[in-house]
Amino acid sequence: MNRDDLKKILSDVKDGIIEIDDAVNSLKDIPYKDLHFAKLDYHRALRVGYPEVVFTEGKDIEHLRRILIDMLNRDANILATRMSEEVFENIKDISENMIYNKIARICIINPKDVEKVGKVAVVTGGTADIKVAEEAAITLEAFGNNVERVYDVGVAGIHRLFLNLDKIRDANCIVAVAGMEGALPSVVAGLVDVPVIAVPTSVGYGANFNGLSALLTMLNSCAAGISVVNIDNGFGAGYLASMINKGFTKNGGER
Fold this sequence. Notes:
The chain has helices at residues 3-14, 20-26, 44-48, 61-72, 85-91, 130-142, 159-162, 165-169, 184-189, 212-219, 234-250, and strands at residues 33-34, 39-40, 54-55, 78-81, 98-101, 106-109, 117-124, 145-150, 173-178, 196-200, 226-228. The longest helix has 17 residues, at 234-250. The protein has 11 helices and 11 strands. By secondary structure, the protein is of the alpha/beta class. Helix 10 (212-219) links the parallel strand 10 and strand 11 (226-228).
């Protein structure tokens, strides 16, 4: 339930369209619905503007099915992250209306048409970083943001970045995804006047330490205007970028 849903319920009560008891029934699961093994936060969109997202990795299949079915019964637009193909095969029967992206490992269940605003550029150092970048990009699109994808423009061939700067600079926020030494966000942040969200990936050889070297590089960047999320956390980067982009657009920003 979001703010618009709550306003409609209150307006319908005021206008006599629905009874008070029916309105109370609609609100009964605020602040959450208790399934014992999970507490579904149907109040979240009302509080923070975005609904609860389901992290699927590690969940028991039957628990996951019950969570998703309960959300479907509320006609929710469900974003389910870190979903393997095996898990998708086990839950795809719950709805005929699903979009699954095996690269991003994201499933959107019962997708709604969402008006998209502003623009976020999602940039990668290499092709191997795309699975994390796509997690960010699809999260952004699901939350109503226009996305410009600029892939494989890392510092090893920095001319590729320079030749795509116009597209990158046209965004209200930038998600920069890189593994190896993780230098891309620092370079990008020195060339733009908008926030850069750095995403270290676990792509790299042994001394990359599964993304730790990239994470430390990004945390130690001398370029200002960078925030850093956890290793491979495309979803977290997309969520934060959406908040920045929508805040910029809401306040009348144009580029």
